[in-house]
Amino acid sequence: MFGKLEHELEMHVPASEVWDLFGTLRIGQFVEQEMTELFQKVELIEGDGGVGTVLKLTFAPGIPGPTSYKEKFTKIDNEKRIKEVEVVEGGYLEHGFTLYRVTFHVIEKGEDSSALKSTIEYEVKEEDAANASLVSIEPVANIAQLAKNYFSRNKAAKEAKQ
Protein backbone atom coordinates (compact mmCIF):
# COMPACT_ATOMS: atom_id res chain seq x y z
CA MET A 1 0.00 0.00 0.00
CA PHE A 2 1.39 3.39 -1.04
CA GLY A 3 0.42 6.75 0.43
CA LYS A 4 1.33 10.40 0.11
CA LEU A 5 0.61 13.45 2.30
CA GLU A 6 1.48 17.06 1.48
CA HIS A 7 1.65 20.38 3.26
CA GLU A 8 2.63 23.81 1.96
CA LEU A 9 3.29 26.97 3.94
CA GLU A 10 4.12 30.48 2.73
CA MET A 11 7.30 31.94 4.17
CA HIS A 12 7.80 35.69 4.12
CA VAL A 13 11.54 35.47 3.55
CA PRO A 14 13.67 34.72 0.48
CA ALA A 15 13.88 31.08 -0.62
CA SER A 16 17.64 31.18 0.00
CA GLU A 17 17.07 31.76 3.74
CA VAL A 18 14.61 28.88 4.00
CA TRP A 19 16.99 26.61 2.07
CA ASP A 20 19.89 27.60 4.36
CA LEU A 21 17.86 26.01 7.17
CA PHE A 22 16.14 23.05 5.49
CA GLY A 23 18.89 22.14 3.03
CA THR A 24 21.59 21.78 5.67
CA LEU A 25 22.31 20.13 9.01
CA ARG A 26 20.89 23.25 10.71
CA ILE A 27 17.42 21.73 10.44
CA GLY A 28 18.41 18.96 12.88
CA GLN A 29 19.68 21.50 15.40
CA PHE A 30 16.58 23.63 14.86
CA VAL A 31 14.22 20.68 15.44
CA GLU A 32 16.09 19.65 18.59
CA GLN A 33 15.91 23.19 20.02
CA GLU A 34 12.41 24.17 18.91
CA MET A 35 10.50 20.88 19.28
CA THR A 36 11.57 19.74 22.73
CA GLU A 37 8.07 18.37 23.42
CA LEU A 38 8.51 15.90 20.53
CA PHE A 39 12.26 15.28 20.20
CA GLN A 40 14.71 14.66 23.01
CA LYS A 41 17.80 14.58 20.81
CA VAL A 42 18.93 14.81 17.16
CA GLU A 43 22.37 13.28 16.65
CA LEU A 44 24.66 13.31 13.65
CA ILE A 45 25.69 9.67 13.12
CA GLU A 46 27.68 10.10 9.91
CA GLY A 47 28.22 12.60 7.13
CA ASP A 48 28.65 16.33 6.70
CA GLY A 49 25.14 17.34 5.70
CA GLY A 50 25.37 16.05 2.14
CA VAL A 51 23.77 13.01 0.54
CA GLY A 52 24.44 9.96 2.71
CA THR A 53 24.32 11.89 6.00
CA VAL A 54 22.60 9.89 8.75
CA LEU A 55 20.84 11.44 11.76
CA LYS A 56 19.37 9.65 14.75
CA LEU A 57 16.20 11.23 16.12
CA THR A 58 15.22 10.28 19.66
CA PHE A 59 11.70 11.11 20.77
CA ALA A 60 10.88 12.74 24.08
CA PRO A 61 9.77 10.35 26.86
CA GLY A 62 6.05 9.64 26.79
CA ILE A 63 5.62 10.01 23.02
CA PRO A 64 3.67 6.98 21.75
CA GLY A 65 5.34 4.76 19.17
CA PRO A 66 9.02 4.05 18.59
CA THR A 67 11.59 5.72 20.81
CA SER A 68 13.94 6.61 17.95
CA TYR A 69 14.81 6.15 14.31
CA LYS A 70 17.64 6.88 11.91
CA GLU A 71 17.13 8.87 8.75
CA LYS A 72 19.42 9.30 5.76
CA PHE A 73 19.69 12.24 3.37
CA THR A 74 19.05 10.54 0.02
CA LYS A 75 18.79 13.59 -2.25
CA ILE A 76 19.93 17.19 -1.99
CA ASP A 77 19.42 19.43 -5.01
CA ASN A 78 20.72 22.90 -4.18
CA GLU A 79 19.62 24.31 -7.52
CA LYS A 80 15.99 23.18 -7.23
CA ARG A 81 16.10 23.40 -3.41
CA ILE A 82 14.85 19.86 -2.83
CA LYS A 83 15.95 17.58 0.00
CA GLU A 84 14.77 14.00 0.52
CA VAL A 85 15.23 12.08 3.75
CA GLU A 86 14.35 8.40 4.29
CA VAL A 87 13.99 6.41 7.48
CA VAL A 88 16.66 3.70 7.31
CA GLU A 89 16.41 2.13 10.76
CA GLY A 90 13.73 1.89 13.44
CA GLY A 91 10.64 4.05 13.55
CA TYR A 92 8.10 3.27 10.86
CA LEU A 93 10.22 0.40 9.55
CA GLU A 94 9.37 -1.48 12.76
CA HIS A 95 5.66 -1.19 11.89
CA GLY A 96 5.66 -2.84 8.46
CA PHE A 97 6.68 0.14 6.38
CA THR A 98 9.11 -0.53 3.55
CA LEU A 99 9.47 3.18 2.71
CA TYR A 100 9.03 6.37 4.71
CA ARG A 101 10.37 9.43 2.89
CA VAL A 102 10.06 13.13 3.69
CA THR A 103 10.76 15.69 0.97
CA PHE A 104 11.25 19.39 1.59
CA HIS A 105 10.96 21.64 -1.46
CA VAL A 106 11.63 25.36 -1.06
CA ILE A 107 9.77 27.26 -3.77
CA GLU A 108 10.73 30.81 -4.69
CA LYS A 109 7.66 33.05 -4.88
CA GLY A 110 9.33 36.45 -5.15
CA GLU A 111 12.30 38.42 -3.90
CA ASP A 112 11.20 38.24 -0.26
CA SER A 113 8.71 35.40 -0.45
CA SER A 114 8.86 31.63 -0.70
CA ALA A 115 6.93 28.52 0.23
CA LEU A 116 7.98 25.30 1.90
CA LYS A 117 6.28 22.25 0.45
CA SER A 118 6.65 19.15 2.62
CA THR A 119 5.70 15.72 1.32
CA ILE A 120 5.59 12.37 3.11
CA GLU A 121 5.59 9.29 0.90
CA TYR A 122 5.26 5.85 2.39
CA GLU A 123 4.81 2.23 1.47
CA VAL A 124 3.53 -0.32 3.92
CA LYS A 125 3.14 -4.09 3.57
CA GLU A 126 -0.46 -5.17 2.89
CA GLU A 127 -0.60 -7.21 6.10
CA ASP A 128 0.35 -4.04 8.03
CA ALA A 129 -1.90 -1.67 6.05
CA ALA A 130 -3.74 -0.61 9.24
CA ASN A 131 -0.47 1.01 10.39
CA ALA A 132 -0.80 3.60 7.61
CA SER A 133 -2.94 5.48 10.14
CA LEU A 134 0.30 6.17 12.07
CA VAL A 135 1.44 8.54 9.31
CA SER A 136 0.64 12.18 9.92
CA ILE A 137 1.71 15.35 8.13
CA GLU A 138 1.35 17.21 11.44
CA PRO A 139 5.00 16.91 12.62
CA VAL A 140 6.43 18.33 9.37
CA ALA A 141 3.68 20.98 9.30
CA ASN A 142 4.70 21.94 12.85
CA ILE A 143 8.36 22.16 11.80
CA ALA A 144 7.36 24.43 8.90
CA GLN A 145 5.29 26.67 11.21
CA LEU A 146 8.09 26.89 13.78
CA ALA A 147 10.51 27.82 10.98
CA LYS A 148 8.11 30.51 9.74
CA ASN A 149 7.86 31.92 13.29
CA TYR A 150 11.67 31.81 13.58
CA PHE A 151 12.11 33.70 10.31
CA SER A 152 9.49 36.27 11.35
CA ARG A 153 11.25 36.86 14.69
CA ASN A 154 14.62 37.28 12.96
CA LYS A 155 13.15 39.62 10.35
CA ALA A 156 11.47 41.75 13.03
CA ALA A 157 14.72 41.88 15.06
CA LYS A 158 16.69 43.01 11.98
CA GLU A 159 14.11 45.69 11.17
CA ALA A 160 14.13 46.92 14.78
CA LYS A 161 17.91 47.41 14.61
CA GLN A 162 17.65 49.58 11.49
TrEMBL record:
<dbReference type="GO" id="GO:0006952">
    <property type="term" value="P:defense response"/>
</dbReference>
<dbReference type="GO" id="GO:0009738">
    <property type="term" value="P:abscisic acid-activated signaling pathway"/>
</dbReference>
<dbReference type="InterPro" id="IPR000916">
    <property type="entry name" value="Bet_v_I/MLP"/>
</dbReference>
<keyword id="KW-0017">Alkaloid metabolism</keyword>
<dbReference type="InterPro" id="IPR050279">
    <property type="entry name" value="Plant_def-hormone_signal"/>
</dbReference>
<dbReference type="GO" id="GO:0005737">
    <property type="term" value="C:cytoplasm"/>
</dbReference>
<dbReference type="InterPro" id="IPR023393">
    <property type="entry name" value="START-like_dom_sf"/>
</dbReference>
<dbReference type="GO" id="GO:0038023">
    <property type="term" value="F:signaling receptor activity"/>
</dbReference>
<dbReference type="Pfam" id="PF00407">
    <property type="entry name" value="Bet_v_1"/>
</dbReference>
<dbReference type="GO" id="GO:0010427">
    <property type="term" value="F:abscisic acid binding"/>
</dbReference>
<comment type="similarity">
    <text>Belongs to the BetVI family.</text>
</comment>
<dbReference type="GO" id="GO:0009820">
    <property type="term" value="P:alkaloid metabolic process"/>
</dbReference>
<dbReference type="GO" id="GO:0004864">
    <property type="term" value="F:protein phosphatase inhibitor activity"/>
</dbReference>
<dbReference type="GO" id="GO:0005634">
    <property type="term" value="C:nucleus"/>
</dbReference>
<feature type="domain" description="Bet v I/Major latex protein">
    <location>
        <begin position="3"/>
        <end position="131"/>
    </location>
</feature>
<protein>
    <recommendedName>
        <fullName>Bet v I/Major latex protein domain-containing protein</fullName>
    </recommendedName>
</protein>
